[in-house]
Specification:
Blueprint (H helix, E strand, L loop, with lengths): L4 E7 L3 E7 L5 E8 L2 H8 L6 E6 L4 H8 L5 E5 L12 H14 L13 H30 L15 H6 L4 H32 L4 H5 L7 H11 L8 H7 L4 E4 L4 E4 L2 E4 L4 E5 L5 H15 L4 H11 L4 H22 L5 H8 L1
Parallel strand pairs: 1-4, 4-5
Antiparallel strand pairs: 1-2, 2-3, 6-9, 7-8
Helix pairs in contact: 4-6, 4-8, 6-8, 8-10, 10-12, 11-12, 11-13
Length: 352
């Protein structure tokens, strides 16, 4: 029976440092290969028997994952934020550590599978990047006016009709030129964002679950499409708590020395200390759920009633919005997994 080879790869732009460890823990090889398709495939074909490969999540992760799939029994893309701290650091040390951690099962995997939403993922990434660019330019325009003591609340300072009036408020010619350049950037990026949004929504309609997600109040076409692109499939989450952690809605707790001996039996005497929300999360997904909860908390309908019921029970407003965001995430998971329609009466019974 062939022993499993565990390969750790430290991936860089031009080279990949690789370490190969046997099933018994012996270091078989340390080498540096070119970060090209041909060299990587030739390296993988050198090994007989089952091969397990790992590397850290990064820019090349998706491409390398798909390249290695046919040549390895298992490909694990690990989360670098959860890997252990290393005092001595080099490419060889990193690859060797990854190989040993893969062998011992100490790596946290990052989800990489083709669920039929790859095209939608790329379109959504393009839309989100352009939306961030528009927001950044708008913030710079307001910051410029405020730096000269000019109040600029609302959206009127961005419109083309009143733009000349706003530029006239700036006292110096150089500042006006700078503001005009920002306006030109805004006028150039906005149409691109709108075109990307239109293309993304057209692709999102091809997925049947999009219509079911839009049944949830305050989840419109954009949010429903982003949920499909960001989650890919609901079956990657066994429970709603796993989804909460991935979306940054899970609480991080910390406790030490929590047990003491009472009559010869261990007994817990300390409660975990809450340290806030999980920072290692999908921030775009977190924004979708929290923005939906914020809209629902100030609107009407069953989600708003659920939020108001939490307030009447004495819960703080910020915790009530977090609980509402969790509830929305749980509803998305149930609707998508089970293929059922949104039932407002069920939510009302839970609120009661």
């Amino acid at each position: 029976m062939n022993n499993i080879k565990f390969i750790g790869m430290d991936v860089h732009q031009a080279t990949i440092s690789a370490a190969v460890v046997s099933e018994k823990g012996a270091l078989l090889l340390e080498t540096v290969i070119e970060a090209g398709e041909k060299c990587i495939v030739e390296f993988m074909q050198r090994w007989s028997g089952p091969v397990h490969v790992t590397f850290e999540e990064g820019t090349w992760a998706t491409w390398l994952y798909e390249l290695l799939q046919p040549h390895a029994e298992r490909v694990l893309v690990c989360n670098p934020r959860k890997n252990g701290n290393r005092r001595n650091k080099s490419d060889k040390i990193d690859a060797r550590k990854l190989a040993y951690w893969l062998r011992s099962g100490d790596l946290s995997p990052v989800y990489h599978h083709d669920c039929g939403v790859r095209h939608l993922q790329e379109l959504s990434r393009g839309y989100l990047a352009l939306r961030k660019d528009v927001t950044r330019i708008m913030n710079r325009i307001k910051a410029l006016y405020r730096s000269w003591g000019i109040a600029c609340g609302g959206m009127s300072c961005y419109g083309q009709r009143q733009r000349s009036q706003w530029l006239a408020k700036l006292p110096q010619r150089g500042v006006r030129q700078r503001a005009d350049q920002l306006y030109q950037q805004l006028d150039a990026v906005r149409p691109l964002m709108q075109a990307a949004r239109k293309t993304m929504l057209a692709e999102g309609k091809k997925h049947m679950v999009c219509g079911r997600l839009k049944q949830i109040p305050y989840i419109g076409p954009v949010r429903a499409t982003l949920l499909i692109a960001l989650l890919q499939t609901p079956h990657r989450f066994r429970t709603k708590r796993q989804l909460w952690a991935y979306a940054g809605l899970g609480l991080v707790t910390e406790v030490s020395g929590e047990y003491r001996m009472v009559q010869g039996k261990p007994q817990r005497h300390k409660t975990p200390l809450i340290r806030g929300l999980n920072p290692d999360c999908n921030h775009e997904l977190k924004y979708v759920f929290k923005s939906t909860a914020n809209r629902a908390s100030g609107g009407q309908g069953p989600l708003h009633d659920f939020y108001e019921n939490l307030l009447t029970q004495g819960m703080r407003a910020e915790m009530a919005r977090l609980t509402l965001a969790r509830k929305i995430a749980a509803i998305v998971l149930v609707l998508w997994k089970k293929g059922v329609d949104f039932d407002p009466q069920q939510l009302k019974r839970q609120a009661a």
